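Hi W.,

Here's what went into the run:
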Amino acid sequence: MSWESILIQLLNGLAGASSLFLVAAGLSLIFGVTRIVNFAHGSLYMLGMYLAVWLSGRVGFWVAVPLAAVSVGLVGFFIEFFLLKKIYKAPELLQLLATFALALVIKDAALWAWGPEDMLGPRAPGFSGAVNIAGSAVPQYDLLLILLGPLVLVFLQLVLSKTRWGILVRAASEDREMAGALGVNQRWLFTGVFVLGALLAGLGGALQIPREPASLNVDLRVISDAFVVVVVGGLGSIPGAFLAALLIAEAKAFCTGLGYSEATLVIEFVIMAAVLVWRPWGLLGRAQAPAKNPGFAQAPAEFPARKVFIAGAVLLAVLALLPVAAGGYTLVLLTDMLVFALFATSLHFIMGPGGLYSFGHAAYFGIGAYAAGILVLNKITTMEFALALAPLAAGLGALLFGWFCVRLSGVYSAMLTLAFAQIAWSAAFQWNALTGGSNGMVGIWPAPWLASKTAYYYLTLILCAAAISFFWRAIHSPFGYALRAGRDSPQRADASGIDVRAVQWAAFTIAGLAAGVAGSLYAFSKGSISPESLGIQRSVDGLVMVMLGGIQTLTGPLWGAALFTWLQDATARNLDYWRAVTGMVILALVLLLPNGIGSFFQKKK
Amino acid sequence: MNILAVRNLSKAFGGVQAVRDVSFSVAAGELLAMIGPNGAGKTTCFNLVGGQLPPDAGELFLEERNILGRPPRELCRLGVGRTFQVAAAFISMTVRENVQVAVLAGEQRLNSAFSTFERNDKTEQILLQVGMDAQADRLCAELAYGDLKRVELAIALASRPRLLLMDEPTAGMAPAERHGLMALVKEIAKEKGISVLFTEHDMDVVFQYADRVMVLSEGEIIAQGNPADVRADPRVRRVYLGEEAAHA
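Here's what came out:
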């Protein structure tokens, strides 16, 4: 370790910051005007990479890069024109879900077009050499990228301040209704901004190919990095995005330069935490106006308590008798359904009554699973104690992350949950000594008396039923009402003496704890865990389950989880493009049936 | 004796001085109206007093207690209730649940996730008082706007306030309804000894129900006193009533 190596890392970080800035700037621009946080923005970046690699082989690098960027802009046009236009007036959560679904579809489209292997890009002709700086070789291409970031920043600032179009964009960002009233043609303005944002993301990806191969994992990594950048820089602020991209890339590079590459995740988290405590709206951001359509302000569907009790008892009796008739395979499937019913119920608790959007609930599921595995495999405790302790680890994680999430609202909070889940995933993926890295952990089996499928099924049934009935009870308890009050009208709740953040924080922690119960049960039922158990895909699964069941219903998460688990089991093994199917299901739900299947059964009051 | 004392309160948003060196007090049991043209700083003033916004400068006292910088939830516990310009009730709940959640919040009894959300006498009394007992089981989302305003009043009364802050209590209501609501507010206030500070656009309402009137213009108080004096004040006529006359 020397000053030279730190300098090299800093330059490397600057080069990385440019790409990151392009993505974050596009994300910020689009949010400013359309108020939609585009979860598929990392996917557009990924698409830019693949297209650029593919085109380079045909037309050469320097033509491929702009062509890829323009192509991604065109994809953006289709996305905006055929999907987003239909949901601008929809509740925030549905908009987030729709762009999330898009990310899934794009990933599978890339898998279909280019296959699962990483694709190496060419070097940039004319910039393939290196420059000697302080005795080390710095790639010329890195220096080009370092220059490009500020150039794009200046260009964007000029467009926004000098051109008529840019002034309209700023007017719309300030006050959408007012700009509309002044006769700004919003439809084309929105389309234009989205295309520009997509183009920037595509360009960011295309420019990255001489530095790293195109791969299918890029999308989530980039979008969570971009989220961290806009949260730190301030959503809607382009200079803020630039500043934050520099800050984060440099801090990470510094850690790597010092020889602590594991610390890069921690430093990202520390920077974000510090900024959020010091300036909750980001370095150059401004306080966010409350959402105009927060959505889902309905009551949870309430049957008379007696009916719920009877229905619950009948269901429980049926589930308890099933092992008599069902075979081993069915029992495993039922065990999965129970585990995911609890997972979905805990997610529903914070999303429905709590009004907090979590796009990273799997983090707590995964922490529970990993904690169980670590406790048992290292012979720290017996399986029974591990099952009791592991959820506490998940609860602690939720306590820590939740403190930040409840300080922000709506989309900000959703972005944070995703970023935290990505951090947890990276930790599991990278911390080989503790978690087994990408291979995960094997041999996590239950105690002998629980080893049979029937015994384990009963254990799962008892724990999940108890936890789910706790949530049902909690929704109708004074605490549940306080939670709903804070969701319905934070201002009113505060003026009535309710500490809204504290209530939400408690709910977030309880939900994390319960997800941890589900996760540790899952680990022992499978005997193994991998980073996938806390991956974004699992968080999305949870969201789909809740959506399927209908967010304002009490029992919806149960039906949603059962249906989804069964569907996945029945089709996933025969289907190469499961993600795309999930994405399509979400899009169909959002566009056709925003209240979920549960809404069919719900009595109209 | 004063329940609320406001001293030299100021607040600017960027370059706009929304509230400038405002000082006033609310006497125990009085209904004080704050009036002024649009943009005079009334809502900002309210949000400063109610703890929704931090002031740039100034002091706030509730009785003898310094309440500067306290969040709304603490002010609520100290005896300040408030309603908002755009009625903000808990939209997913019934009328009764709205009041009940506020009653329990005032008593700090919302922590249990296991117990039942039980009905209580206090809620029923307040519902009766504001005349919403017959509609207690209706969902707030289904209510007429005037009724929603009554629910908001009921929520504000739930914590047994000694000072009630009402920002535009009758905004969006039909004229007949306005008098109904203000008569109700006055009756409850006099009966329970609650002081009320309210802003209002309807001059009829102001001069009929306020004990005292205070006029804000461009963030400053330009007159205060009993309704008749304020009505006669030439500056007020120029700044405020003059503007109304011009519109008429």
